[in-house]
Design goal:
By secondary structure, the chain is an all-alpha fold. It has one domain. Helix content is 84%, strand content 0%. The protein is built from eleven helices and no strands. α2 packs antiparallel against α7, α4 runs parallel beside α11 and α5 runs antiparallel to α11. The longest helix is centred in the last third of the chain and has 32 residues. The chain is globular and about 45 Å long. The two termini are 21 Å apart.
Length: 282
């Protein structure tokens, strides 16, 4: 393995870990809606000055950006609801794992992309693992509401993935498109948090500001490291490596949040990640 490939591999592993930590910080937040609003708002404030000196995208691109902004707002609300409902090591693998599978199906239907037999096998393994997560626990409780919220959030991720893939193709300017994506994410979820919390927003925000700033750093890290890896190594294996965030996130939830994470969930998380690897590399 040459130095460039080795650095790209390390960068993608760092991206997976950063995504898992970012999600852990969201789960730990006392008020997850305010936390998400502040995190995305800080990102918007950081990126907007740079964007103002870049070419303004044409309306053909804004159609995708505005549609994606509605979808990412829905994702944030569903993420908050899922994490308020139950354990991260159940919600996160389903949210993270179902999204690529759904995105692959959506790309096949709406963008005309082909799906190989290997990818179908990966899709089957990932789907089976997701069904396993939804299966009732030993106490007989299926945690249906949590699973449905996580799947709904995953469907939003799959939707904005397909929307943004189409938008970037029309734009031809990846970083400008990604910058406006972050800004629009902030200007949708932060006002929602302010409206929902009313007069208590400022007092809650003071408690959540420091962890939100930390989360912003991990948010930038997970995207920045992933872009570096994609620019310096084959995309498919790098995308597959990023799916390790599923296992890392579940393990962090068990170690830091002391959530239950028995052998069944460990096996399901590994199978889910393996299915997504097949989906990416075959």
């Amino acid at each position: 393995m040459d130095n460039t490939l080795a650095l790209a591999t390390l960068a993608m592993l760092g991206s997976a870990l950063a995504h898992a930590v970012m999600t852990l910080l969201t789960k730990k937040a006392t008020d997850k809606l305010v936390f998400r609003g502040l995190t995305q708002g800080f990102l918007a404030v950081l990126i907007l000055p740079w964007l103002l000196f870049q070419p303004i995208p044409p309306w053909e691109v804004w159609r995708f950006l505005l549609t994606g902004a509605v979808v990412i707002w829905a994702f944030n609300m569903l993420l908050v609801a899922a994490f308020n409902e139950g354990e991260m090591n159940l919600a996160y693998p389903v949210m993270r794992g179902a999204a690529p599978a759904l995105a692959a199906l959506a790309a096949f239907v709406f963008l005309g992309e082909t799906v190989s037999l290997g990818q179908l096998a990966g899709l089957g393994v990932a789907t089976a693992a997701l069904i396993g997560f939804a299966w009732p626990e030993r106490d007989g409780k299926p945690k249906l509401k949590l699973i449905l919220l996580a799947l709904a959030a995953a469907s939003m991720t799959a939707s904005y993935t397909v929307i943004d893939a189409a938008g970037v193709r029309v734009s031809g300017q990846l970083f400008i498109y990604l910058g406006w994506f972050f800004v629009l994410s902030g200007v949708t979820i932060l006002p929602t948090a302010i409206f929902r919390r009313g007069t208590s927003f400022l007092s809650i925000a003071r408690q959540e500001t420091r962890p939100a700033l930390m989360c912003m750093g991990f948010n930038l890290a997970t995207y920045g490291l992933a872009l570096y890896a994609y620019a310096n190594a084959p995309v498919a294996p790098m995308a597959a490596l990023r799916e390790l965030s599923i296992v890392l996130g579940a393990l962090l939830a068990a170690l830091v949040l002391k959530e239950p994470f028995g052998g069944r969930r460990i096996l399901l998380a590994i199978c889910l990640a393996a299915g997504l690897v097949l989906l990416q590399v075959m």
